[in-house]
């Protein structure tokens, strides 16, 4: 597999010319679009041309406040039904390149693979968000933490933990308005995109952060979505970081709680005990996620992908060296520019990716039928999805389904696209 290496570039061109190449590679304003077009031209034979009655193109929809949302749109001549695809954090529309064709061909659907604001080819700028950087101090005995890998590889459980009254009150201050402001930024941008394109209703397929935002979109705009597919959505489980915990309404003294194994409980700590202090500190400092990518330049292509190659190649559908390299360069170029979204996630999730307003606390307001999909090796807590599906079906029988993609991880739509595509297509019929 071929990756750009700064060291080898130096050997060939010398330090002065290598630095110039590095700068041009990072600062090229058209590199993201070029990488985007190359990926989709490789994936879709009808990209920017008509082929067997179907055509794909990249479009940009203007929004208010000088913003825009970019999308890859695939349309048959007689398409009437719409499917919107929302990617996760640090991703963009190109991450769906193994899935778009199957959805477009199923039922003559118009597929809209969107770049959320701050990602891909959409506007990188946005509002200045309010914040509360107080770190919730969760105290427990490190010597009594058990790794419950037989339940989930990311689950670490101490016997109990303590929250200090003063710290907890500081943590809770203004958090509701912060989370609502950030979530509404994305949710309202999606709604403005829908209205500007004259779409009455659509099916929504959303992954990770996109899944979290998709749930809140469905709640705020309940008639806009017909069917909802959530692929390993973030922020489902409850935890001590949930500002919706009823016990926090009247705080009088410190909290000491026995840890729970269930993501339905506010005493569920999940992966938090394993999060490194340094990472927690950077998270609460609001260190831009992609700053290292900008500093490393082309070397980041290898670093971005090296830890994921083994996961992506679980399926023979994603193992070609040229395809992997093209995708790696696409990921690099669409993440290297500074973005308002780099730190937005840090306002709605803790460093352990626990939501400050969990999806479980908003389920009663979720109306469309939903399919919850997790990967067999997912780092997200699939049990949280099982709880959500059980609760939804108790409120309205048959309103939710739960599925697991064999051999898949968090990005199961890339790890095993054939199985993922089949599940989604069958559900959206």
Automatic annotation (TrEMBL):
Gene3D superfamilies: alpha/beta hydrolase. It holds the Pfam family Abhydrolase_6. Coiled coil: none annotated. InterPro entries: AB_hydrolase_1 (IPR000073), AB_hydrolase_fold (IPR029058). It comes from the Eukaryota. GO terms for molecular function: lysophosphatidic acid acyltransferase activity; phospholipase A2 activity. Residues 83-422 form the AB hydrolase-1 domain. GO terms for biological process: cardiolipin acyl-chain remodeling; lipid homeostasis; phosphatidic acid biosynthetic process. GO terms for cellular component: mitochondrial inner membrane. This is AB hydrolase-1 domain-containing protein. It comes from Ogataea polymorpha.
């Amino acid at each position: 597999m071929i990756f750009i290496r700064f060291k080898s570039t130096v050997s060939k061109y010398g330090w002065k010319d290598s630095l110039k190449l590095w700068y041009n590679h990072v600062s090229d304003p058209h590199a993201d679009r070029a990488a985007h077009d190359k990926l989709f031209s490789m994936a879709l034979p009808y990209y920017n041309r008509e082929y067997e009655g179907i055509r794909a193109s990249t479009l940009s929809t203007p929004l208010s406040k000088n913003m825009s949302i970019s999308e890859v749109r695939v349309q048959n001549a007689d398409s009437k039904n719409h499917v919107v695809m929302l990617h996760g954090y640090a991703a963009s529309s190109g991450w769906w390149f193994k899935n778009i064709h199957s959805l477009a061909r199923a039922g003559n659907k118009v597929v809209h693979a969107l770049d959320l604001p701050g990602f891909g080819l959409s506007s990188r700028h946005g509002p200045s968000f309010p914040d509360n950087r107080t770190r919730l101090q969760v105290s427990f005995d490190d010597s009594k933490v058990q790794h419950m890998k037989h339940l989930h590889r990311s689950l670490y459980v101490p016997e109990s933990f303590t929250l200090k009254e003063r710290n907890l009150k500081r943590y809770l201050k203004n958090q509701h308005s912060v989370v609502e402001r950030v979530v509404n930024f994305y949710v309202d941008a999606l709604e403005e995109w829908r209205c500007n394109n004259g779409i009455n209703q659509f099916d929504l397929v959303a992954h990770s952060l996109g899944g979290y935002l998709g749930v809140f979109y469905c709640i705020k705009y309940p008639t806009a979505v017909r069917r909802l597919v959530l692929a390993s959505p973030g922020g489902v489980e409850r935890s001590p970081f949930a500002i919706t915990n009823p016990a926090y309404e009247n705080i009088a003294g410190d909290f000491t709680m026995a840890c729970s194994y269930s993501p339905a409980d506010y005493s569920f700590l999940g992966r938090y005990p394993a999060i490194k202090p340094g990472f927690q500190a950077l998270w609460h400092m609001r260190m831009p996620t992609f700053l290292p990518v900008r500093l490393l330049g082309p070397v980041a292509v290898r670093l971005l992908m090296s830890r994921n190659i083994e996961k992506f190649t679980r399926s023979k559908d994603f193992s070609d060296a040229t395809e992997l390299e093209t995708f790696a360069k696409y990921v690099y170029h669409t993440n290297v520019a500074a973005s308002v979204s780099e730190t937005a996630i840090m306002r709605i999730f803790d460093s352990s990716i626990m939501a400050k307003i969990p999806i479980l606390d908003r389920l009663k307001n979720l109306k469309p039928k939903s399919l919850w999909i997790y990967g067999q090796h997912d780092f997200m807590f699939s049990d949280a999805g099982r709880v959500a599906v059980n609760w939804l079906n108790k409120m309205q029988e048959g309103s939710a389904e739960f599925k697991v993609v064999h051999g898949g991880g968090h990005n199961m739509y890339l790890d095993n696209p054939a199985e993922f595509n089949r599940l989604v297509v069958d559900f959206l019929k």
